[in-house]
């Protein structure tokens, strides 16, 4: 792997240090350092190889991560969520200097900074906040990612030029976390009006450190430094415009080519590399592997709780005990991901580490449970009851990444006497299968910033047309989830969230497998690259060395 | 001759109609409701899905929808992309030149390799030159283009740094993609050319040319090769379809623009109108190129007259 190292002069340990340093959101605790002004004009160009063409660059409409890579740098949220930055503080002022939440979590008042301008020169006012939210709620916009965060949005009241109050019909505690994402970041009212709801995404206008320059579909998105930028988060490494002059997001669908382009230096950052390639980068001088945390749930297998024999709680519990996540992760993702034992990722509000202990791998316990459930061992090492073998059906979503995982699970379960078949279906067909409940085991994964995502996954009305592929239905649970969203006070929310999570865990409908992280390969010329709490790279503080 | 052209053109019409029918039916045969899939992830209510179904005209009888589809086709209206909200026809028009460029350079590469290897094999028949030429072309067929592409990038971009891994505009970016596609195509041309050349070189008029004192090169190129070219032309025309499908893979790997990459993106994002549009355009291209090939064939060889 020698040819690409020539010009680099740095410590041999750099690769290791880089990989270890990252679980951090924006910046490590350097609160004591004075904020440095950007001393010289922005210079240099960073190219980031990403795999997918954005669907739109309208942050309020898009459903894709690749669009998010652009919008996180072109837009500022009202509030930044940066856990771990400063002791005791999770939320930091963004475009809003301060904010108030009503006790019933139905009204959020934001007091905006007065010195912010959009890239087209229009000043940021409360009207921009209102217009942006109305745009997202408008059916013509066909918002995918941002709309759910606005839930039961009713209206935005403007009280003076720089104060906006967002009003919801029902309590919406989750909004405090959703408003911190780029999906709900303000867009220029002038641009929204000029381009219209459907076309705005082709030339977005935000307030961020980078401005939109061009988007050639299938090829690249280019952003240039905003020379007037002076309202970055206070915990950033510097204030003022970004250090680099241009950031290009190059669309490269093939993983091997993304990796090779990183090695030739045609891109300085790449996402979605294969585990073997990541291992190579970890050992190669001149490169760093970043693994940034994300929020929501781990990559998981879901169990259908309505279809025999998995409608039996003991059978589901046996499946949990028969699964060895450590072995799966060691075999497939060693050094990149960690095994998961919780329905939440550790970054989720209300995450309870105690729940991790509920189902640790124990083949003997699994066997005992199956015996208790009336499934004695039969011929050929397969358990049976009433002449029927214990045979389960995995339905994988083709290309989703569960193929090897389920093969390992199949082997692990065989050890305790469970036979399983694996089929793969394209997503539309799989979604239909899951909706109808024709499976025993489904794949699932979902990014979410607030634990209220449980509402979309485990409540009764989500069976059939929603995401409730476990067909779990407990009205008591539904009520618990609704109440957990009813108050903005964490002291009230967290116990309710934890109770709800415990109910799901006890129902044994989720088998968590690994903790998803956002993994990036980078040239070590790229310095001061940071990530949001849900894994998006921020180029604001980045400088290019060499 | 005019009658021949006319008959061929008219003969293409049923083919095109059949293709449009097939493409139209795709949307209705696959599982899942198009409107639901289009709105997937945006938490659409059943009312919104119904509204979209009405807007797309999915409630009407199939035959009416097909007739409407054909009518819009005649006006070069391929519908709107589900993902980008832009006209499918516009997007395809933007991407097509890149694929055309790739196809053209690939053809050149394939032709050059094929003719040289074939001619060498024929002239130096049954010597080591012949064997080398044939092995070279068989290698091209044996290596799948997606594998060869990555191999070429590894050698020429990562290690030698002679060429870029990513195909930016311009000739340098076209070389590796064209070679990885063209090498495979050259194989069949090599064999064909070699066989034809051997046959042609045994002809009396070649002996005459030699008797006239013409140099070997002159004999081979001006007299033999030209006649061996005729079947080659037909072959190239037929290969367009395979070449366009190979472009799908190569464009994705090199991060190139083009309708192949467009098709992949459209499939992955379930953008049905775009997939339909690309399939139609590729089919149309195939039919047109085949037509042109037939006509060129007839023009090239005065002996050929189709009744």
What does this structure look like?
The complex is a heterodimer of chains A (546) and B (307). With 546 residues, chain A is an alpha+beta fold. Chain A is built from 16 helices and 27 strands. In chain A, helix 9 runs antiparallel to helix 11 and helix 15 runs antiparallel to helix 16. Chain A is globular, with a radius of gyration of 24 Å. The two termini of chain A are 21 Å apart. Helices cover 78% and strands 0% of the residues of chain B. In chain B, helix 5 packs antiparallel against helix 6 and helix 10 runs antiparallel to helix 12. The radius of gyration of chain B is 24 Å and the shape is flat. The mean pLDDT of chain B is 83. The chains are: A alpha+beta (546), B mainly alpha (307). Chains A and B meet through helix 7 and helix 13 of A and helix 7, helix 10 and helix 11 of B.
User: Could you tell me how far the N terminus lies from the C terminus of chain B, measured between alpha carbons in angstroms?
Assistant: 10 Å
Number of DSSP helical runs of chain B: 12
Mean residue pLDDT of chain B: 83
**Helix segment count of chain A?**
16
Order of H and E elements of chain B: HHHHHHHHHHHH
Biggest sheet overview of chain A = 7 strands, mixed
**Taking Cα atoms only, what radius of gyration of chain A do you get, to the nearest Å?**
24 Å
Which regions of chain A contain 5 or more consecutive residues with pLDDT less than 50?
A: 1-38
Largest sheet of chain B: none
User: How would you classify the helix and strand content of chain B by structural class?
Assistant: mainly alpha
Structure summary, number of beta strands of chain B: 0
In which order are the strands of the major sheet of chain A placed?
Answer: 9-10-12-2-13-23-14
Strand fraction band of chain B?
under 5%
Based on Cα principal axes, name the global outline of chain A: globular
What form of chain B results from the Cα inertia axes?
flat
Bin the strand percentage of chain A: 15-25%
The value of Rg of chain B in angstroms is 24 Å
Distance between the termini of chain A: 21 Å
| Count of strand segments of chain A | 27
């Amino acid at each position: 792997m020698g040819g690409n190292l020539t010009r680099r002069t740095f410590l041999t340990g750099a690769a290791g240090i880089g990989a270890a340093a990252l679980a951090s959101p924006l910046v490590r605790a350097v609160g004591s350092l004075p904020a440095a002004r950007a001393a010289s004009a922005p210079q240099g160009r960073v190219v980031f190889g990403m795999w997918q063409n954005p669907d739109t660059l309208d942050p309020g409409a898009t459903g894709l991560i690749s669009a998010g890579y652009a919008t996180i740098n072109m837009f500022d949220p009202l509030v930044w969520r940066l856990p771990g930055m400063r002791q005791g503080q999770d939320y930091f002022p963004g475009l809003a200097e301060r904010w108030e939440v009503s006790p019933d979590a139905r009204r959020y008042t934001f007091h905006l900074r007065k010195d912010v301008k959009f890239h087209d020169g229009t000043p940021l006012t409360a009207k921009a906040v209102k217009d942006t939210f109305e745009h997202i709620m408008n059916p013509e916009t066909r918002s995918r990612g941002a709309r759910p965060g606005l839930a039961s949005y009713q209206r935005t009241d403007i009280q003076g030029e720089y104060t906006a109050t967002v009003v919801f019909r029902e309590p919406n505690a989750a909004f405090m976390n959703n408003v911190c994402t780029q999906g709900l970041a303000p867009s220029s009212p002038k641009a929204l009006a000029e381009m219209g709801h459907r076309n705005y995404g082709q030339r977005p206008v935000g307030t961020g450190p980078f401005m939109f320059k061009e988007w050639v579909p299938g090829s690249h998105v280019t952003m240039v430094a905003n020379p007037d930028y002076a309202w970055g988060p206070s915990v950033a490494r510097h204030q003022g415009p970004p250090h680099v002059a241009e950031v290009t997001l190059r669309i490269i669908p093939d993983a091997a080519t993304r990796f090779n382009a990183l090695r030739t230096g045609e891109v300085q950052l790449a996402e979605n590399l294969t585990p073997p390639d990541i291992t190579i980068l970890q050992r190669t001088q001149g490169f760093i592997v970043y693994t940034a945390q994300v929020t929501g749930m781990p990559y998981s297998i879901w169990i259908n709780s309505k279809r025999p024999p998995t409608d039996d709680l003991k059978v589901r519990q046996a499946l949990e005990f028969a699964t060895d996540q450590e072995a799966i992760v060691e075999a497939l993702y060693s050094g990149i991901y960690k095994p998961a034992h919780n329905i939440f990722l550790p970054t989720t509000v209300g995450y309870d580490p105690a729940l991790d202990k509920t189902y640790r791998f124990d083949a003997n316990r699994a066997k005992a449970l199956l015996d208790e459930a009336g499934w004695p061992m039969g011929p050929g090492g397969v358990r049976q009851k009433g002449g029927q073998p214990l045979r389960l059906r995995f339905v994988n979503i083709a290309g989703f990444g569960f193929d090897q995982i389920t093969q390992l699970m199949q082997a692990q379960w065989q050890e305790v006497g469970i036979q399983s078949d694996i089929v793969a279906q394209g997503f539309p067909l799989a979604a239909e299968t899951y909706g109808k409940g024709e499976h025993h085991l489904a794949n699932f994964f979902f990014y979410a910033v607030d634990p209220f995502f449980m509402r979309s996954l485990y409540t009764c009305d989500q069976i059939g047309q929603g995401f409730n592929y476990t067909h779990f239905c407990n009205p008591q649970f539904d009520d618990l989830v609704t109440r957990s969203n009813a108050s903005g006070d964490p002291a009230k929310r967290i116990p309710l969230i934890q109770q709800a999570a415990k109910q799901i865990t006890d129902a044994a409908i989720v088998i968590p497998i690994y903790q998803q992280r956002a993994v990036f390969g980078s040239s070590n010329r790229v310095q001061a690259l940071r990530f949001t709490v849900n894994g998006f790279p921020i180029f604001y503080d980045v400088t290019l060395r060499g | 001759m005019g009658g021949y052209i006319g008959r061929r053109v008219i003969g293409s019409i049923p083919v095109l109609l059949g293709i449009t029918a097939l493409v139209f039916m795709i949307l209705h045969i696959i599982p899942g409701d198009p409107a639901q899939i289009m709105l997937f992830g945006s938490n659409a209510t059943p009312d919104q899905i119904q509204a979209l179904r009405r807007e797309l005209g999915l409630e009407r009888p199939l035959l009416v929808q097909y007739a409407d589809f054909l009518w819009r086709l005649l006006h070069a209206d391929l519908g709107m992309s589900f993902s980008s909200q832009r006209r499918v026809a516009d997007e395809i028009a933007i991407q097509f030149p890149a694929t055309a460029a790739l196809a053209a350079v690939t053809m050149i590469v394939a032709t050059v390799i094929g003719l040289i290897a074939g001619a060498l094999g024929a002239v130096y028949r049954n010597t080591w030159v012949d064997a080398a030429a044939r092995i070279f072309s068989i290698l091209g067929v044996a290596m799948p283009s997606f594998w060869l592409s990555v191999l070429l990038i590894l050698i020429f971009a990562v290690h030698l740094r002679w060429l870029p891994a990513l195909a930016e505009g311009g000739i340098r970016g076209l070389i590796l993609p064209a070679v990885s596609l063209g090498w495979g195509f050259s194989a069949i041309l090599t064999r064909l050319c070699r066989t034809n050349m051997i046959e042609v070189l045994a002809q009396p008029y070649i002996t005459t040319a030699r008797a006239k004192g013409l140099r070997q090169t002159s004999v081979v190129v001006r007299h033999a090769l030209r006649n061996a070219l005729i079947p080659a032309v037909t072959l190239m025309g037929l290969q367009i379809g395979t070449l366009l499908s190979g472009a799908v893979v190569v464009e994705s790997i090199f991060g190139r623009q083009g309708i192949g990459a467009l098709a992949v993106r459209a499939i992955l994002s379930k953008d049905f109108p775009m997939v339909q549009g690309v399939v139609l355009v590729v089919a149309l291209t195939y039919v047109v190129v085949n037509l042109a090939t037939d006509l060129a064939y007839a023009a090239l060889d005065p002996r050929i007259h189709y009744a």
